[in-house]
Amino acid sequence: MQISTMYRCSILIFLLFSSLVLNAGSGTIEFTPHGTQPGLAYSMGGSNNCSGCHKGGSVTDDPINMPYSTWVGSMKANATRDPLFWAALDVANNDLPGVGDFCLKCHSPLGWYNGRVAKPVTPGDPPVDGVNGCELAADYTDVHSQHNDFDGVTCEFCHRMDQTGPGGEAQIIQNGSVWIDDEACPTDSIPCRKGPYSAEDYNDGGSTPFHGWEYSSFIQSAEFCGSCHNVSSPDYEQNGVVQPFKTLVLSDGTATSLAMPVERTYSEWQNSYFADLIYRDGMGDISSDLPALVTGANCQTCHMPQSESIEARACVFDNLNGMGEGRRMGNLPTHQFAGGNSWIPQVLKGLYGADLEASDTGRLTAFDLTTSYALDMLQNQSALLDASVNSVTSEELSLAITVTNLTGHKLPTGYPEGRRMWLQVVVRDASNAIIWESGAYDEMTGVLTEDAQVKVYESLQGIWNPAANGGDGACEITDGDGDKMFHFALNDCVAKDNRIPPLGFRSATDPEMMPVGITYPARPGHPGEVVNYDVTNYLVPVSGQTGPFSVEATLKYQIASKEYIDFLDKEATNYAFPTENQMCDRTWTEGPADQSRGAFMKSLWQNYGRSAPVDMVMDFIGGINP
Questions:
Q1: CB-based contacts of 437: which residues, under 8 Å, 6+ apart?
Q2: CA distance 137 to 521
Q3: Of the candidates 18, 30, 37, 174, which has an alpha carbon nearest to the alpha carbon of residue 101?
Q4: Which of 25-29, 202-206, 564-568 has the highest mean predicted lDDT (pLDDT)?
């Protein structure tokens, strides 16, 4: 499907009209009306405040235990260095001027809360012209410091989060609309740092804590993670009324009042067995089809696994009073935050690693650790694959490939743009020559061949065009050239979502999470639930071929598709996005510098393996004869 010229014009007119209305009398669009706002009484500090005590150095296993050492290579710590984010931000700001305020609130909380994005720290002062990130302090290669807005998702951001606001306001589980503790701790002159330890655990058996602290059950909950890992079209405020900028249009054209759901990782978990306490605490009748791998899991169980090293420690003073050896073993949530992104950490290592290492030793190791954590997550904790033969004749081989989701959310989950998983199936003859293939991928070009039988698991979001299909409407995902579009800020419909549900998923009819373009069967004996696996059948012509045949099936995962990278570069070219130095009036040599962010990202994609897909799991069948 293609967006017509008339419909393109209607989008631009709508945006112009919206901008004029929303800007009237205010000077800026209010995209972040919820939660704690800039102008903190106690400004958000950088993670250098924490590294002195919470970074390893003198114990052999410190890099795989200490909070700073495991966090510093993660995508959380590098959310403001990620070149893919910056290329996407330029597109979002071009589509919806000012929406970068919404994006940078999560990607640079230090800059946002300290008034260097859009909202000033003093109410009534003029808005800050920083929705493109140009007003952020420091740069890509600066070491973590008090004034480095490229610090990513910082220690303080998480460890000052409260479940409720200062007036008892309820938690908002989406869009980073969090409440930040902004009162002095009773035992210190700064806000309490919140964590999972009791007084006995925290203070090394009687010594004085080195900063104000407070036990928090909230920081150990999935709801804590859900604050940022549910994302919807941003709310905006107009004439005192707060409403979503884009609301969801269903595949049949039904307009809802629901904010467009960009990602629903927390809600996917919440509507699965993983969220059920009867399973999490190991009690009750756990059914025989529940893999042992998934029992007892919330977000932190998988993404902050407990360290089992006898040398595990939370800070360098954990050896005081004879309490050191083994004291944190099994009682230290390591700050890995591993997901599916094994690629960007290596890009960042190549781009900025040497400079960062020069002022903060251990950074190169940290990037490698993050990649190893992600690969372990993808290859050992996410899926099972089973290949079987339905039938075989002298004319045709019938196969069934089953992929089972072991995670506590859809597989794959998270930010949908460019992210995909697919099945590659290869059939060979008696001489081991390939006679048939589905899902072939060319590593030299980054092209995935989408043959007639290919299975690609992904969420494709688009823009609803009521004039398409003879007036019946359609969710359009390609532009006038037939190229895929990824307009995060403008999307208002889902053209495809065949991602595999988690075990016990009970929201297959919820408009915000329902599969689109596929129907997952009901789970036998469990009303309201659907299965957590998908079966794909293949028909392979074998007439004239010599057996016995063999089949190799591989589940592959890719963080950034060629289509997505090409889109980011195409938008930068078509709309003449300035270079980063031009846009920000800089003379930097690191980062995009004298390239647009879209062009820079494309060059990185080409030079760093084209986001080479990860082989997650595979299965092999040999000796197949008619």
A1: 424, 425, 426, 427
A2: 51
A3: 30
A4: 564-568
Q: Residue with structure tokens 């993983």?
A: 274
Q: What is the dihedral of CA 543, 546, 549, 553, to 10 degrees?
A: -60
pLDDT tens, position by position, 107-165: 999 999 999 999 999 989 999 999 999 999 999 998 766 679 999 999 999 999 999 99
- With b for 16 or more beta-carbon neighbours within 10 A and e for fewer, the 118-136 pattern comes to bbeeeeeeebbebbbbbbb
Structure tokens at 85: 């984010």
- Residue with the bigger pLDDT between 158 and 207: it is 158
* Distance, CA of 259 to CA of 249 (rounded, Å): 10
> Exposed, middle or buried by CB within 10 Å (0-12, 13-18, 19+), for 41?
exposed
Instruction: Assign residue 422 a region (left: φ > 0; alpha: ψ between -120 and 50; beta: otherwise).
Output: beta
Residue 506, pLDDT above cutoff 80: yes
Q: Where on the phi/psi map is residue 414: left (φ > 0), alpha (ψ -120 to 50), or beta?
A: left
Rounded to whole angstroms, how far apart are CA atoms 257 and 238?
16
DSSP string, 604-623: HHHHTTTSPPEEEEEEEEEE
The string of pLDDT tens digits covering residues 302-353 is 999 999 998 888 888 776 545 566 778 898 999 999 999 999 999 999 999 9
- Give the long-range contacts of residues 432-435, CB within 8 A, separation 24 or more: 432/550, 435/540, 435/542, 435/545, 435/549
- The reported pLDDT for the residue numbered 328 is 84
102 in Cβ contact with 175 (< 8 Å): yes
| 512, pLDDT greater than 90 | yes
**500 in helix, strand or coil?**
strand
pLDDT tops 90 at residue 440: yes
DSSP code for 292: G
Strands 193-195 and 213-215: parallel
Give the tens place of pLDDT for each residue, 374-395: 999 999 999 999 999 999 999 9
For residue 252, give every residue at least 6 positions away whose Cβ sits within 8 Å of its Cβ, in sequence order, or none. Answer: none
609: left (phi over 0), alpha (psi -120 to 50) or beta: left
CB 90 within 8 Å of CB 103: no
Q: Which long-range contacts (CB under 8 A, 24 or more apart) does 115-122 make?
A: 115/38, 115/39, 116/149, 118/28, 118/31, 118/32, 119/32, 119/37, 119/38, 119/39, 120/38, 120/39, 121/38, 121/39, 121/40, 122/39
Amino acid, res. 424: Q
